[in-house]
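Comment on both lines for my students:
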Amino acid sequence: MMLWHWLTLAKFFNKIGNYFYHLHVKTLKNKQRKEREMPKGQGTYGTKVGRPPKKKKKVMKKKKK
């Protein structure tokens, strides 16, 4: 009887997991659809290559003592 209780409990949490998985897949499909509909040569952020380039870090020179 105790096993039946754990199985029903696991079924409940499995439904929650499936909900978030399908939500994730749905958002991925929407993102891919939007990229397909985007004009040729335009990236995700409206640039030619996609993401904007990362800012370069300035190298700090060590001071001599």
